[in-house]
Amino acid sequence: MSTGLPTIGEVARQAGVSPQTVSNVLNNPQLVSPLTREKVQKVIDALGYRPNSAARQLRTHASSTIGVRIDPASTDGVSGVALDRFLHELTQRAEERGLRVLLFTAENPDDEITQYTKLRDTADVDAIVVTSTFFGDPRPAWLASKGMPFVAFGRPWGSDPDDPLVRWVDVDGRAGVRSATEHLYGRGLRRIGYLGWPHGSGTGDDRRGGWLEACEELGLDHSIELIAEERVPEARAVVQRLLADGSDVEAIVCVSDTLALGAMMAVREAGMPHLPVIGFDNTPVARAVGLSSVDQSLDAVAQGVLDLLLGGGARILPTPPHAEPTHRLVAPRLVVRRSSHLAVVDNTQNG
Amino acid sequence: MSTGLPTIGEVARQAGVSPQTVSNVLNNPQLVSPLTREKVQKVIDALGYRPNSAARQLRTHASSTIGVRIDPASTDGVSGVALDRFLHELTQRAEERGLRVLLFTAENPDDEITQYTKLRDTADVDAIVVTSTFFGDPRPAWLASKGMPFVAFGRPWGSDPDDPLVRWVDVDGRAGVRSATEHLYGRGLRRIGYLGWPHGSGTGDDRRGGWLEACEELGLDHSIELIAEERVPEARAVVQRLLADGSDVEAIVCVSDTLALGAMMAVREAGMPHLPVIGFDNTPVARAVGLSSVDQSLDAVAQGVLDLLLGGGARILPTPPHAEPTHRLVAPRLVVRRSSHLAVVDNTQNG
DNA sequence: CTGTTAGCGCCTTCAA
DNA sequence: TTGAAGGCGCTAACAG
Fold first, then answer.
1. Fewer CB within 10 Å, N- or C-terminus of chain B?
2. A87–chain B nearest CA distance, Å
């Protein structure tokens, strides 16, 4: 039973060399003389030969594959983690570095750990990318204890961020919100409010810190603070109330695009469409409705994940400690949009 | 060099049988006597043994893996294909049937075909799931011509939908928009407008057909038709103009949530927040802002994709013709929401 | 620099 | 009903 695909032996025969030499041309070209190399390469090209992954995996004990959980696009909110964008970036960069991305699902963190076990036992993946870390997250500790290579997208909230056993990449939410606040200040606004999540979420508290920091640095008052769960109507309601109460707020920075969308709706409905609102995540919705937003730089996150995993080489590094750095904080970037009010409508009419 | 994982030989030794018997317990239990079976199973459980995928792949010439392209979350619009939701459903159902999902990226259709070639040459996938088919799409024909098993999510627009060489699953957009229109009719509305994409897109024309059909059947006038590209501001502008012109429109059915969001904004800003707007795709945004929308039933689509691929068995079927059906049209379902105006705001205040 | 030998872990074939 | 032999396609280790 054959697959019809050429094998390394086939190439070797046609090139008049041994299979091992063909293998070397592929994996250790510097060991092969330029002449043979070229000769072999010609046959490879002619046959369209590519090494069989399974055979290579079996022989090398490496799948060159990383596993990522795909979430149930779930919950309220507009964003999720913007997971699909991250996945795209990760997959693309992984391909460039000779890695594949395998998906799996899980109902909850414990189930996810079960999946890790399976993926390891079947040798399907060399490493795991953990997303959406949270307070008390059991996953990093479990993976570290099993010596299963992994990188987390998201800080290990609630445990030592400098633990060399936990490699992580995260977006610097504090810096992001800070730059949003500073941007508004630069536009001459002084009464800058903050709309955040209830306290206790690592990500949320971090972002809020950026607003506080900027306020203190710039000598602004930081008394206008609103709180809402990650739901548009709730955000809309609290901002509605704020405006109805006659607040002198001049701009609102939000912890997420979801809340920002709600805020934006309230602001428009209150007849103050020019009161700036800034979101976080730069989701498609923000783009769609013309909302300024802090972009997570998911390309840089994906890059960071692979850098930490591979350490500049082509092979997945074992669980630290090793010489490489074990975490990276990515700077997000503010994307400024003019609220799609009349200006944009006019543009569109020309299109 | 070993992986530390138990092998089939290890299990065999501890159970006092041959490796072959262990293999049979796993793959052909009916060939093994209940007694040995139990004995072997006990050792399997004790060791946590799972067969190595690569070895199995190599031996069986089947990867039990399907490849799916992940899009660049791209473009304007709020939805994409809701690809992440589809991916989740597909991965979950694939797992249940012993299949894995491997991601890949591509810049354009030709590049995608190059990726197919690679995935086949390396024997990484047994089949491809093609998403977002379009007029003149070269992918299905290419795959069919190479005998590479695949299923398309999306009809092969512009070529024979009954071609048995092209297996596909799609959402019945016509039926979806039709039911949305009928729903509005049932609420007593008669002047029902349609906001669609420019003509020429298979999906768009199909959905529009549902509106026309319903109008004719119900004896409604179908003169209120608006057109916009897949962008919120553009949708907002055309609806704004419609309302400014004093149209007597009573409800608007939209080809997508993106356009519906724009329509909704225009409607609210015109002070007619109770004018119903219905979208298509049931994206997170629709949920977030309380927009009624036609849900694509992506769970059923994923199910259909696997059914067509596996035909009820556990092995991927070769390119048709075979006995199984080769396409499936999935009925979408209308999700009705009360526009998150005051009612919802009030609810939230209690929460 | 190139070739030979061996074996990764599993399952198909065939014999007992 | 069970076991032995062999090989899927590749590369590590070692000779030459």
1. N
2. 8
